[in-house]
UniProtKB/TrEMBL annotation:
Family: Belongs to the universal ribosomal protein uL10 family.
SUPFAM superfamilies registered for this protein in UniProt: Ribosomal protein L10-like
Pfam families: Ribosomal_L10
PROSITE patterns attached to this UniProt entry: RIBOSOMAL_L10
Function: Forms part of the ribosomal stalk, playing a central role in the interaction of the ribosome with GTP-bound translation factors.
Organism taxonomic ancestry: Bacteria, Bacillati, Bacillota, Clostridia, Lachnospirales
Gene Ontology BP, a term: translation
Subunit (UniProt): Part of the ribosomal stalk of the 50S ribosomal subunit. The N-terminus interacts with L11 and the large rRNA to form the base of the stalk. The C-terminus forms an elongated spine to which L12 dimers bind in a sequential fashion forming a multimeric L10(L12)X complex.
The name this protein goes by in its record: Large ribosomal subunit protein uL10
CDD domains linked to this entry: Ribosomal_L10
Length: 174
């Protein structure tokens, strides 16, 4: 069997992972210990992020004709790719947080929703909270005025009842 035939399924697997992907981040994983790599993979898996170590030529072939082709210039040396189909900032957030503990992990670049970002851009994107956190903050902001109004109305109602009770007790005392 020819080498091309052996490599084609690997390229096809990368293409399938990139299909409908919201983001992909390229990292240099050299220097990570086995324990660190295992922990990184676990965190990424829990967030629904696909993490693969692939040859650069295979990634370049898989990137052809997609938004991820912009990453070709960053494919030098050993690389791994983290791909997310649901949360666009999840790979950047998890990898950048992990890189604080494991200094050997180097973020090279990434594509988030069609835009390419260098290492500094990915670092900034990692500061954006997840979609769930943003939605809960929005919901809290929307509920806050209603909750405050309910408290004020409740206090007015309680104060309104207090004078009526005092008047009812005053004639009874006479």
């Amino acid at each position: 069997m020819a080498k091309v035939e052996l490599k084609q399924p690997i390229v096809q697997a990368i293409v399938e992972d990139l299909t409908d992907a919201q983001s992909a981040v390229i990292v240099n994983y050299c220097g990570l210990t086995v324990a660190q790599d295992t922990e990184l993979r676990k965190q990424l898996r829990e967030a629904g992020v696909i993490y693969k170590v692939c040859k650069n030529t295979m990634m370049k072939r898989a990137f052809e004709g997609t938004d991820f082709a912009q990453l070709d210039e960053y494919l030098e040396g050993p690389n791994a790719i983290a791909i997310s189909k649901e949360d666009a900032t999840a790979p950047a957030r998890i990898i950048c947080n992990f890189a604080k503990k494991a200094e050997a992990l180097e973020v090279k670049a990434g594509v988030v929703e069609g835009s390419v970002y260098d290492a500094a851009g990915i670092q900034e994107l990692s500061k954006i909270p997840s979609r769930e956190v943003l939605l809960s903050k929005l919901l809290g902001s929307l509920q806050s005025p209603i909750t405050n109004l309910a408290r004020v109305l409740n206090q007015i109602a309680e104060q309104g009842d207090a004078p009526a009770e005092a008047e009812a007790e005053a004639p009874a005392a006479e």
